[in-house]
Amino acid sequence: MQLDKFLALVQAPVEIKPHLHFFYSKEEIELITRLEHKKLQASEIAARMEAPAGETAALLESSYRRFAMDKEMKGGRVLYGAGTFYDRHGYCAIFENYHLLPHKLRQFLYEWCYREYLKRHDYFKKVLSGEPAYEHCHNDAVLLLEELEEMIAAAPVIRLFPCDCKIIADNCGHSREVCLWFSPEMIAERTRGQELGRELSREAALELVRSWDREGLIHTGGPFSWREKGPGVVCNCCACCCFPLRAARELGTKGKWPYSKYVARRDPSLCRHCGLCARRCRFQAFSLGKAAASTGSRKKRMVHFNPGLCWGCGLCAQTCPEKAITMVPVPGRVE
Description:
seven-stranded mixed β-sheet; about 35% helix; alpha+beta
């Protein structure tokens, strides 16, 4: 009964019950169960736990840093309360031995986590009507490689983190350490001092983003007005694992969230129908038809282009050996 109560308190699915101690220590389970839905000061929690103040303070701080507990300032007081399993799960996936969980459970948690993600970020639906409130969004815009390089040049700090989407979904073999944080203020306070992630030089960051571009990863991030506010976070996404890209497809927000500032333009007279663009495009804007195209002495399948399916990522233009593809601004969208 205590474990069922705990699962309800942290809003966790019952399916993790046999593996609960993988995510939480016995002390954290006891702490959250006794605290219930209350938010209290460390001294009040120590009294409730009937434990020494120093021992309780250490437990609260370690639980907070593991995203098992939350804390907030209210009326000049520091209050601790139970965190959610959603947040604890995300931290575990990025920084702990998540791969040790049974594959079937990880598959379940992928779909569970995605559903929770949609609940927490339902404001994306607002972009379907009117002008999106981009200050409330993440993965604001699709970025060309040269835009990301410009961000790196302007960033006060560059820190590299694993991607929670890729680790949780585990749908492909793409690189996983691909999230770049550029703003010191946006790095969560609870992770400071834990040596999480890796700090990069500008040269190392440029080398990495160019390799990700060659790998076929899509650059998304912001904030939307980063030139005024400063760069924040950029994810280098694959379409098979990325929660935001999956959500944008399902919600029908293409072009508005993430915001597409560019669209591909192909010059058919330069195209040699090599098919590299079709292999690189994640959204089927470029595709290989059944009809043959004559290019010199070889016959190849004809490349078709549907600009209405283009998300403006620029992967096709980067890879075209004939420079038949260029990225052009969408009218009225480039700031």
